[in-house]
């Protein structure tokens, strides 16, 4: 039995609900470049559209501090229309939620949540306006479930909450590392976001090897339990020796977790470190888990997707869950 309430057709029948999806997808020239995240959550969306009376889709894109047309969800809306074959209107203001509620339209998409400061601040008045006239909240956005924002932790305090199929798929894939870990466990952290280093102490205590590469190797990390890669002279990749050493550790591991590329992999001249380590993981018989948008892009570029057991749609949420064995989204319903 799931420790959290899961979405079913009976639980949403004839109800009005808010559906939180991960809509932060790569966009260029107003076109969605990669529909993987949207397709992953499609089973949840289609179930809601079939059984709920009304479905208000919410999500964010990018990190705007205020309304900014360049971060509009309109390109995402167009893709959702293509995927569902439905006419989905866009709501641009919170007042339009109430107006839409009086129409016969079964589905709508609210503009980028981050256009409202109340989202980041988890402002009660903002959350109350989101929740107006709704019966349920469905969270199928694992990738944002580590954030203490209005749409993640505020709505569950006002509405009965269910979790969607993609959220459950993510948790189910990660739970074996927590509940029945196969050792040795090796974690590879790369990329440029230093905020993931806040989990390092947790990982050192839980895992056998913690390997640091990419721009993170430039940080002042003194813990002797960390294995830190050496970088090339331009700091755009890890050295071949470091890549080989990482690969050797991976070959002796029973579980491998990877978050963050080891260099500027988009540039062929600085891809070697990421490629060497990625291929070492893919060739290993270990349980192989990866997460994060850049990591996913690197794996796709190298055509290694089928050789991973699970590729998470949320790098930050994945690390948070593995470090703390819970998420703010789950804590909000307790």
TrEMBL record:
ATP binds at residues 196, 266, 292-295. It comes from Candidatus Chazhemtobacterium aquaticus. InterPro entries: Phosphoglycerate_kinase, Phosphoglycerate_kinase_N, Phosphoglycerate_kinase_sf. Belongs to the phosphoglycerate kinase family. GO terms for biological process: gluconeogenesis; glycolytic process. It catalyses: (2R)-3-phosphoglycerate + ATP = (2R)-3-phospho-glyceroyl phosphate + ADP. GO terms for cellular component: cytosol. PANTHER family: PHOSPHOGLYCERATE KINASE (PTHR11406), PHOSPHOGLYCERATE KINASE 1, CHLOROPLASTIC-RELATED (PTHR11406:SF23). Its EC number is 2.7.2.3. Signal peptide: none annotated. Keywords: ATP-binding, Kinase, Nucleotide-binding, Transferase. This is Phosphoglycerate kinase. It comes from the Bacteria. GO terms for molecular function: ADP binding; ATP binding; phosphoglycerate kinase activity.
């Amino acid at each position: 039995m799931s420790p959290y309430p899961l979405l079913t057709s009976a639980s949403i029948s004839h109800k009005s609900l808010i559906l939180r999806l991960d809509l932060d997808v790569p966009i260029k020239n107003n076109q969605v470049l990669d529909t993987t995240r949207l397709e992953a959550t499609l089973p949840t969306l289609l179930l809601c559209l079939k059984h709920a009376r009304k479905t208000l889709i919410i999500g964010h894109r990018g990190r705007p501090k205020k309304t900014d047309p360049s971060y509009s969800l309109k390109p995402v809306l167009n893709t959702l229309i293509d995927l569902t074959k439905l006419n989905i209107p866009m709501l641009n203001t919170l007042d339009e939620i109430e107006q839409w509620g009086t129409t016969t339209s079964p589905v709508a998409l609210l503009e980028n949540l981050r256009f409202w400061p109340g989202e980041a601040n988890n402002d009660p008045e903002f959350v109350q306006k989101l929740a107006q006239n709704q019966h349920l909240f469905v969270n199928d956005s694992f990738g944002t479930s580590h954030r203490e924002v209005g749409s993640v932790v505020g709505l569950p305090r006002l509405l009965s909450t269910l979790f969607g199929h993609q959220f459950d798929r993510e948790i189910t894939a990660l739970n074996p590392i927590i509940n029945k870990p196969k050792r040795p466990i090796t974690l590879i952290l790369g990329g440029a976001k230093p905020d993931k280093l806040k989990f390092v102490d947790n990982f050192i205590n839980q895992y056998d090897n913690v390997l640091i590469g990419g721009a993170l190797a430039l940080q002042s990390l003194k813990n002797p339990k960390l294995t830190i890669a050496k970088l090339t002279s331009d700091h755009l990749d890890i050295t071949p020796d470091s890549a080989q050493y990482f690969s050797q550790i991976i070959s002796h591991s029973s579980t491998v977790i990877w978050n963050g590329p080891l260099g500027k992999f988009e540039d062929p001249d600085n891809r070697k470190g990421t490629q060497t380590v990625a291929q070492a993981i893919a060739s290993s018989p270990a349980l192989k888990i990866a997460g994060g948008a850049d990591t996913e892009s690197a794996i796709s570029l190298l055509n290694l997707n089928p050789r991973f057991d699970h590729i998470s749609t949320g790098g930050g949420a994945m690390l948070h869950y593995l470090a703390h064995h819970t998420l703010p989204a789950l804590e909000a319903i307790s």
